[in-house]
Design brief:
Largest sheet: 5 strands, antiparallel
Number of strands: 5
Number of domains: 2
Helix content: 40-55%
Structural class: alpha+beta
Strand order of the largest sheet: 4-1-3-2-5
Strand content: 5-15%
């Protein structure tokens, strides 16, 4: 006896500039066979006396007076994993509805359809289609095949966690002398209580704590800017194992791309609000701080492994620095034609060379085998240059980290 697969539900949220635009978008979603669709003024619960939020300030003042559409779509007959390629196309389609009516998609939540239907807030309900389900194609679409990754990197090991901790503490002491003089993101390494804490089980665990301290949940702040010289000093420290150096370079890659990544995520919203995206001061200053440290990182280019050169080339592109040594070195990296690595190397070269036409072509190639890039590129409000910078760290780190993982498996 085969157990029936539970219906899967997705609740989409659109934000629109007026009630009329919200109702028009809701009607369109209902026409796509969404089961429940509600229209409410933005921050609706601020105006409900029984709500915890009643009378409180708006959580998003920019959207004061805007309206929202909440719509529940039900998909039946397949596991969640099998549905992913189709749901991705659905997210793209719903986002297009938001743009067409002058707004943007503000997110979505997923779960078992009966649960989502039971908790759906029906205030402002404008369309109720009992039992409606979105028609699924047969067969379901599948993710595109990925090209081969390229030859394995020789990344070296991560080293013992105790040695990594000792190196970090030594670098912090050398740079700052005391916890009081260190940036907030680094001071804990020099705090006396840290020395008596539980030892780390792995180097990756410690580096994860360090990355979160420097940029909590990946968000740049003033302390992030101040910590960039410390991270650079740690990358250059001979006591840090090669694999750990790569992981630290990965942190710098993500920090340098934080502004472009936010711009891509907010592109439709910025356009709907009629303003150009502007990265935060901390994001801008963090990237500038990394750019100032790049000459030191590149000074050992001739002695670095190919994996480190790959990461450094990407970091150079993210910081907008033109370095002929890096451009020439890209051609020597092991990136056979037809591999995903060849596409990423081409992306780095296009960003370094500021070749806009080539950049569009290369992003199209990457999107043909990486659906997440295709989804981000679907918005006409996302500039190719910004998209290339935003996706670059993930592409580089996915490739490089596979080499680090392989090293862990060695006896």
């Amino acid at each position: 006896m085969t157990t029936a697969r539970p219906a899967w539900g997705v609740q989409y949220t659109l934000t629109l500039p007026s009630e009329g635009a919200a109702r028009a978008a809701a009607a369109e979603l209902s026409g796509m066979r969404h089961r429940l669709t509600a229209v409410r003024v933005h921050d609706h619960f601020r105006f409900v006396p029984s709500s915890f939020w009643y009378g409180r300030p708006s959580t998003d003042p920019e959207l004061e007076g805007w309206w929202q559409v909440f719509s529940l779509a039900v998909y039946n007959g397949y596991t969640r994993m099998a549905l992913e390629p189709f749901l991705r196309s659905e997210r793209i389609r719903v986002a297009a509805v938001g743009r067409a009516h002058g707004g943007f998609q503000q997110g979505c939540g997923e779960g078992h359809a009966p649960t989502l239907e039971g908790v759906f807030t029906r205030a402002g309900l404008v369309h109720d289609r009992p039992g409606a389900e979105v028609a699924l194609p047969d067969p379901l679409p599948e993710d595109p095949p990925r090209p081969p990754a390229g030859p394995p990197w020789n990344c070296g090991g991560e080293g013992e966690p105790a040695a990594m901790v000792q190196a970090a503490v030594a670098v912090a002491g050398r740079l700052y002398g005391s916890a009081e003089a260190a940036p907030d993101a680094v001071g804990w390494l020099l705090d006396e209580e840290f020395a008596f804490g539980e030892p780390y089980g792995s180097t990756a665990e410690f580096l994860g704590d360090l990355a979160d301290a420097v940029a909590h949940q990946g968000t740049c702040a003033d302390a992030t800017v101040e910590a960039v010289p410390f991270l650079t000093e740690l990358v250059c420290d001979d006591n840090v194992a090669p694999g750990s150096r790569l992981m630290l370079l990965g942190d710098l890659l993500r920090l340098a791309a934080s502004g472009p990544a936010a711009a891509v995520a907010q592109a439709d919203r910025s356009t709907a609000l009629g303003r150009a995206w502007k990265e935060s001061a901390a994001e801008y200053l963090t990237r500038r701080a990394i750019g100032r440290e790049l000459p030191r990182l590149l000074s050992r280019w001739g002695d670095e492994s190919d994996a480190v050169r790959f990461a450094l080339a990407a970091l150079t592109a993210l910081c907008g620095i033109r370095d002929q040594r890096v451009l020439a070195g890209l051609a020597a990296l092991p990136a056979p034609a037809g591999s995903s690595r060849a596409d990423v190397v081409s992306l780095v070269a296009a960003l370094l060379g500021d070749d806009r036409e080539d950049l569009v072509t290369i992003l199209g190639r990457v999107a043909s085998w990486l659906p997440s890039v295709a989804e981000e590129a679907a918005s006409p409000n996302v500039a190719p240059q910004t998209l290339g910078l935003a996706v670059l760290p993930g592409l580089v780190l996915e490739d490089v980290m596979s080499g680090i993982a392989a090293q862990r498996d060695l006896p």
